[in-house]
């Protein structure tokens, strides 16, 4: 990625010895936009990064640790998060005002600052434009795979790049899914246009996934645009702005899909599409209700085409529904027509062996649609979270 460098190393925060400290660095101050958790309990790094970006819309570096959330750690937690920013700035030789901080991991445990401070010189030495994958692995917690996506964008005669990484596997729900994502681009864009594009992309991706309907204290999506492409800065009225937004939407959707696919203990990715709703809000409510239903998720895991559970979840969603107009499909096999069964369970059961499952609900009372990505619920999810701690 032109103008950006990345690093990810083990600092000893995780007992496993895996990478747990990541750094993203821009060679020049980058216009930065971010969205954070809507949880009223916010981790120290979230609070500090929110404050930093509220007063200073540019950033050059993001320091991220995994294995410790630095949440519910009181004044010492704020002091530690601030020290992470200060020490990172010192190692990079830049202003502290140009550093943001992020953490993920167990809640309520003091951050091991001595380990982090000892690791910072090596972290900076390891910075490389080719090490995005190292940074991507260093932000993981219970994830089973790194999550990386990129797109090229034609800007006049030049070609820019948008690249992103993410982590997320458990504590995932719509409304800024419990996750971290960091996106960078060499395209020049003004702050208002970047903020608008990021919000739209998040609403179309990270806000439409759910694993377990849990919300974390540390959710962060941050995007840096350093203008290294030297194009005329994009505005919301620019002819290529829609192309930029389309590429960003693709990157965030890729990352969101990877998160849903990598849900803790998951064996199947489930896409839920609702159509024929009276309002967009109704469509979203039905999709989320079905996606968060433990009975639906366990039925998919057990290869049980139990459309009655889907119908029930639609009914308690709060949306306007008419039982006698609802059609339900699993993998395009119609299991319910006008609210009644079609006796196609045997055919549907065979398709539930697939790794990707499509559930479609046609409410039959309007024209609005919505979609949510989720995953099945397995015994492994219980095992992981019974032993992980907070």
Q: Write out the CATH superfamily name of the largest domain.
A: L-amino peptidase D-ALA esterase/amidase
So, CATH architecture of the largest domain? 4-Layer Sandwich
State the helical fraction. 25-40%
Largest sheet: 8 strands, mixed
Mean pLDDT: 94
Plain-language structure description:
- By secondary structure, the protein is of the alpha+beta class.
- Helices cover 34% and strands 27% of the residues.
- The chain folds into two domains: 4-259, L-amino peptidase D-ALA esterase/amidase (4-Layer Sandwich), CATH 3.60.70.12; 269-388, ArgJ beta chain, C-terminal domain (Ubiquitin-like (UB roll)).
- It has eleven helices and 14 strands.
- Strands 1, 2, 3, 4, 5, 6, 7 and 8 form an eight-stranded mixed sheet that branches. A six-stranded mixed sheet has the order 12-11-10-13-9-14.
- Strand 7 (180-185), helix 5 and strand 8 (220-225) form a beta-alpha-beta unit.
- Helix 7 crosses helix 9 (307-315).
Kindly list the characteristics that best describe this protein.
single chain; 390 residues; alpha+beta; L-amino peptidase D-ALA esterase/amidase; Ubiquitin-like (UB roll); 2 domains; eight-stranded mixed β-sheet; six-stranded mixed β-sheet; 11 helices; globular
Helix-strand layout with pairing:
Elements: E1 4-9, E2 21-36, H1 44-55, E3 58-68, H2 74-92, E4 99-106, H3 113-125, H4 132-138, E5 147-155, E6 158-167, E7 180-185, H5 191-204, E8 220-225, H6 241-261, E9 269-277, H7 280-291, H8 294-301, H9 307-315, E10 327-330, E11 333-337, E12 340-341, H10 345-351, E13 356-362, E14 368-375, H11 379-388
Parallel strand pairs: 3-4, 7-8, 9-13
Antiparallel strand pairs: 1-2, 2-3, 2-8, 5-6, 6-7, 9-14, 10-11, 10-13, 11-12
Helix pairs in contact: 1-2, 2-3, 5-6, 7-9
């Amino acid at each position: 990625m032109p103008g950006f460098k990345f690093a990810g190393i083990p600092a000893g925060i995780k007992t496993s010895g895996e990478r747990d400290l990541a750094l993203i660095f821009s060679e020049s101050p980058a216009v930065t936009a971010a969205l954070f958790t809507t949880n009223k309990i916010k981790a120290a790094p979230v609070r500090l990064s929110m404050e930093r970006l509220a007063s200073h819309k540019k950033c050059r570096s993001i320091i991220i640790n995994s294995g410790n959330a630095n949440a519910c750690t009181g004044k010492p937690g704020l002091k530690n998060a601030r020290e992470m920013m200060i020490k990172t700035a010192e190692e990079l030789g830049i202003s502290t005002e140009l550093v943001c901080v992020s953490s993920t991991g167990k809640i309520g445990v003091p951050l091991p600052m001595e380990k982090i401070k000892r690791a910072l010189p090596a972290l900076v030495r390891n910075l490389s434009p080719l090490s995005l994958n190292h940074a991507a692995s260093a932000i993981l917690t219970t994830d089973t795979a790194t999550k990386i996506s990129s797109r090229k964008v034609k800007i006049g005669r030049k070609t820019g790049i948008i690249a992103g990484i993410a982590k997320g596997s458990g504590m995932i729900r719509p409304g800024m899914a419990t996750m971290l994502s960091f996106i960078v681009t060499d395209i020049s864009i003004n702050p208002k246009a970047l903020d608008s594009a990021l919000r739209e992309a998040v609403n179309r991706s990270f806000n439409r996934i759910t694993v377990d309907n849990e919300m974390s204290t540390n959710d962060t999506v941050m995007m840096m645009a350093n203008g290294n492409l030297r194009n005329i800065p994009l505005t919301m009225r620019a002819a290529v702005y829609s192309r930029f937004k389309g590429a960003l939407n693709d990157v965030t959707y890729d990352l969101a899909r990877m998160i849903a696919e990598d849900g803790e203990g998951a064996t199947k990715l489930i896409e839920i599409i609702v159509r024929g709703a009276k309002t967009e809000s109704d469509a979203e409510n039905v999709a989320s209700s079905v996606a968060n239903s433990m009975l639906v998720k366990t039925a998919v895991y057990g290869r049980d085409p139990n459309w009655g559970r889907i119908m029930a979840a639609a009914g308690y969603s709060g949306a306007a529904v008419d039982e006698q107009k609802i059609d339900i499909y699993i993998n395009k096999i119609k299991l319910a027509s006008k609210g009644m069964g079609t006796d196609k369970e045997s055919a549907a059961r065979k398709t539930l062996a697939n790794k990707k499952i499509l559930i479609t609900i046609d409410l039959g009372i309007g024209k609005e649609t919505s979609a949510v990505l989720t995953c099945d619920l397995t015994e492994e999810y219980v095992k992981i979270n019974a032993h992980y701690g907070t």
